[in-house]
Design a protein that fits this description.
This protein is α/β, with parallel strands linked by helices. The chain has a single domain, classed as Succinylarginine dihydrolase (L-arginine/glycine Amidinotransferase, Chain A), CATH 3.75.10. Helices cover 35% and strands 16% of the residues. The protein contains 19 helices and 15 strands. The strands form 5 sheets. It has a 3-stranded mixed β-sheet with strand order 2-1-15. Helix 3 runs antiparallel to helix 17, helix 5 crosses helix 6 and helix 17 runs antiparallel to helix 18.
């Protein structure tokens, strides 16, 4: 790739739109925020507008910003597969009476957290010089297991040009290949257009002898397996020299760190992480240093500065780390970071005042997402694209002022401002959601991607 081509490469953050059925059902085991807010009344309209405002503010600041649509919810087809029959209204009513947790699951708006949508390898790292996509199977929880098929259709609709993009099948939806997508994957490099090293973080090993010194969490399940991470790397043609596989610290998982992106975030050469992020911290850093062409810049936050409780409650490490043209970096943190004195002090005195490229911290209100356990980094899927690849995108998915205006008006037309778990059985909500999504696919110009549109 020429110097001109390298300079044209940009990281695009594709944020997930918060769906019309956004609710607090406490479905995610091991996600402390999700479990603690289960049963509360949500505000889907506020959640969608908060997400859009975050996208627009980053676009206005000069960052490339894209949009991904929510899933079709409620997933009445899933309820029919589980034995519920009759009209849509009858299916919803029976599920509400006989299996309310199933109803809540098929109404989940969890696809807003597009960091779990899949794993992406940019063309500069792939042997065929195409961008590679593997949707995550998300088999560790039923409400997320429902997502991959539609996710795959959405990604193929947007990244359609086979000259530039390559799509791989979802891994087998079994415990051995449990895959949670980019929430457990970080690409580290010098500039985005330079070759990178892919850090895959896993919670457990499914086959063979457990690696020396490794152990599993005792309280909460480890969602990502080593075997899943290795399979995705093979699909994308990544070599041993391009990959590092590191086990997430089991004590962190037991503290509520269900994904690596709740305890570490990286971009360019910078890896911002808590000292409890990796079981073998020094081994992970040493291997990254040995394989990266540019010097690694680790930014370590010690336990004495930020406790595990504060890390999980504030989502400091689930912030967005954004590269600036001058080599500095901006950290986009949720408002909850200001509410924890130790966290805010660490940001000011340790990160901003430290010897690292982080020069600015921007605070964003994403409370509707945070109460379900998803911070700024959960809401975005990072895709590194050349100028030609950006030009090859299908649909109207790169955010502009006009698209922001249209999406905001769309939310105002279709979303409720109050949704309690009992409201999920309302057949009118299902109709409202389908009408909204049908209009959205036309607004984004991505064609039919939802089951109800495909017949």
């Amino acid at each position: 790739m020429s110097a001109a081509d390298i300079s044209s490469v940009r990281e695009v953050n594709f944020d997930g739109l918060v769906g019309p059925t956004h609710n607090y059902s406490g479905l995610a085991v091991g996600n402390v925020a999700s479990m603690s807010h289960g049963g509360l009344v949500s505000n889907p309209k506020e959640g969608a507008l908060q997400g859009l405002l975050k996208m627009k503010s980053l676009m206005d600041a000069g960052y490339a910003q894209g949009v991904l649509p929510p899933q079709q919810r409620p997933d009445i087809g899933a309820l029919r597969d589980l034995g519920f029959s009759g009209s849509n209204g009858e299916v919803l009513a029976r599920a509400s009476k006989e299996a309310p947790q199933l109803l809540r699951a098929v109404c989940s708006a969890s696809s807003m957290w597009t960091a779990n949508a899949g794993t992406i390898t940019p063309s500069i790292d792939a042997p065929d010089s195409r961008v590679h996509f593997t949707p995550a199977n998300l088999q560790s929880s039923f409400h997320r297991y429902l997502e991959p098929q539609t996710t795959g259709r959405v990604l193929k609709a947007i990244f359609r040009d086979e000259q530039h993009f390559c799509h791989h099948p979802v891994l087998p939806a079994t415990p051995a290949f449990s895959d949670e997508g980019a929430a457990n994957h970080t690409r580290l490099c010098g500039e985005h257009g330079e070759p990178g090293v892919h850090l895959f973080v896993y919670g457990r090993q499914a086959f063979g002898d457990v690696r020396s010194g490794e152990r599993e969490p005792k309280r909460y399940p480890a969602r990502q397996t080593l075997e899943a991470s290795q399979a995705v790397a093979r699909q994308h043609g990544l070599t041993e020299a391009q990959t590092v596989f590191s086990q997430q610290h089991p004590d962190a998982i037991d503290a509520g760190v269900f994904h690596n992106d709740v305890i570490a975030v990286g971009n360019g050469p910078v890896l911002l992480y808590h000292e409890m992020a990796f079981l073998d911290e020094e081994g992970t850093l040493d291997e990254l240093r040995a394989k990266m062409a540019s010097p690694l810049i680790p930014v370590r936050v010690p336990l004495e500065a930020v406790s595990m409780e504060d890390a999980v409650a504030s989502y400091l490490f689930n912030s967005q780390l954004l590269s600036n043209p001058d080599g500095t970096m901006t950290l986009v943190v949720p408002g909850e970071c200001q509410e924890r004195e130790a966290v805010w002090r660490t940001i000011q005195d340790y990160l901003l005042a430290g010897n690292n490229p982080i020069s600015e911290v921007v605070v964003k209100d994403v409370k509707q997402s945070m109460r379900n356990g998803g911070g700024p980094a959960c809401l975005r899927l990072r895709v590194v694209l050349t100028e030609a690849e950006r030009a090859a995108l299908s649909g109207r998915v790169l955010l502009t002022n006009a698209l922001y205006t249209d999406l905001t008006a769309w939310v105002e037309r279709h979303y409720r401002d109050r949704l309690a778990p009992d409201d999920l059985a309302d057949p009118q909500l299902a109709g409202e959601s389908l009408a909204a999504l049908d209009e959205l696919t036309q607004l984004l110009k991505i064609g039919p991607v939802y089951p109800f549109q495909l017949g």
